[in-house]
TrEMBL record:
Name of the protein in question: ATP-dependent DNA helicase RecG
UniProt cross-references to Pfam families, sorted A to Z: DEAD, Helicase_C, RecG_dom3_C, RecG_wedge
Keyword Hydrolase (UniProt): yes
EC number: 5.6.2.4
Lineage of producing organism: Bacteria, Bacillati, Bacillota, Bacilli, Lactobacillales
Keyword Nucleotide-binding: yes
Amino acid sequence: MQLTDRLTVLPGVGPKSAEKYLKLDLETVGDLLVYYPFRYEDFKSRDVLELLDGEKAVVVGQVVTPASVQYYGYKRNRLSFKIKQGEVVVGVSFFNQPYLADQIDLGEQVSIWGKWDLKKAALTGMKVLAQAQDDMQPIYHVGQGVTQANLVKLVTAAFQVGYHQLLEENLPQVLLEKYRLINRQAAVVAMHFPADIEQYRQALRRVKFEELFYYQLRLQVLREKTKSTDFGLSILYQQDLLDDRIKKLPFSLTDAQNRSLDEILKDMGSPRHMNRLLQGDVGSGKTVVAGLAMFAAVTAGFQAAIMVPTEILAEQHFASLTELFPDLSIALLTGSMKQSEKRLILEQIADGRVNMIVGTHALIQEGVSYHRLGLVITDEQHRFGVNQRRLFREKGEQPDVLMMTATPIPRTLAITAYGEMDVSIIDQLPAGRKPIVTRWVKHEQFEQVLDWLSSELEKGAQVYVISPLIEASEALDLKNATALAEDLQSYFKDQAKIALLHGKMKAQEKDDIMQGFKAKAIDLLVSTTVIEVGVNVPNATIMIIMDADRFGLSQLHQLRGRVGRGDKQSYAILVSNPKTESGKRRMSIMTETTDGFVLAEEDLKMRGSGELFGTRQSGIPEFQVADIVEDYPILEEARKMAAQIVQDPKWMDQADWEILARNLDQTSRFD
């Protein structure tokens, strides 16, 4: 008898039914033992006076009227009878199960599992139980051809034969004692058939820790392996020059900026290859931190380059860096440059006359050779493919890599999504920045919004208007946006110059319109697409989002972040009549906070990590029992423990190491 035995060793499973179980990834008895229920039905009998409307429960009572079946239409019928519990008489109905009448005897006690209707004081039955069952019944995910009853029967058979006794402990004794976890065999039994809710909680706690601990341990092992083999440059920057430059800034760095810069500089100074993500909310000052890191590389005699997804962003970064470091030689390299201009810049990059280079993916094309590239930065790193990032890293001799993103990743996800990377977070806005005032209005109030807009336009304000998002059709998006632009033009007439930006435009057309908006040649910009992340138009102070409930919280926050980039008061107006509770909740929370990390956390709770990130694309695993939002404290503790174990091998005895090695399939690390 072994855990690798095929399911066909269990009674009632032949070769054909075994194929059906394969669809659930159940091939062996070992697979079956750790195929846990996703919830339980509590079959403890309840007093009907305690039940809430719509609650599912077991009700036990004496049958006081004969069971009768009423037929109405083809194969449609209702079985009805009444039961008495104490002094309360309850009506019971079963739909399309006439055969249950044989189990209902006048004067006898009966146990019904059903859904309580408070108004009717009646129960819609789902199951007649053989007797009152004071236990918790497991509910599993099932597939075509596999029923709950089949699966429960199969799991029960595996336990009756004693297969669970073959399960070996996969957590070291020192961890079981430290966290007061029950042993593995007891946990697996209680996950399927808990005696009570407390036993189930203990089993669930143990299984969640086990799952998250091994995930984090694999990440930590991977990190250590990378550290030991991935040697890069040691950039010995001049601290005094950097300190002097920071003092000359026209503003003070926030604590979060200082902390992030210190983390980046420490990585740059070490011989280990830097692989760090810098994430910060819109307007948090990532560009300054990146610029200072680039300056540090220059003081050590290296070149530094930053790659961004669009030309308008490249021009923006170029302007920012030129303003910060007027004494340095900074080059801009984009695809649309004239050949003669590009040739000259390529020569300057190759012979080292240029200290910093800003550009689009033109930076990684053939023909671009660097003199002594020490630091490469990708901004909005998720916009570049893996190959593009790899090509950038391969320029020069293993330069340090810093990735940046303005998309707030929930704290609960950062250590999971980027477990193999180091993460620096700027979660503070610069002092003096005015929070964006956010208002939610219904469609019927839009006329008042237009009146207010008219007065703001008179004062010289510029406005973004985002048209409704219709995921199913780009053509409908464009039609809606065109109609919206026409309506606004008809309302404002000569008071406002209005332009339309949409997904079907060529990149150059989009760029021209954004440049026109930046130059104040356009007052009101109607767009179907999310305005480019990071685009800086300080004079744009109003963002209007039509049918805002069609967007997720993170999208709404990114859109809102296009305004509030200057010293004027900015506004975001959400126009929406949400029909769902979650839509109303999204609108409310947008008016309550401007903290992108808080919003990202809420978005994660409402939508789940898979939907927020696209689980396959992001590399975030789908855990069987753990939930990375609800179980964040366990995840964080598992991460700390995994890091401690990997960084200090002497901490555990040989027997404990052997358990970890056996269950990690990473024996070479633990020899």
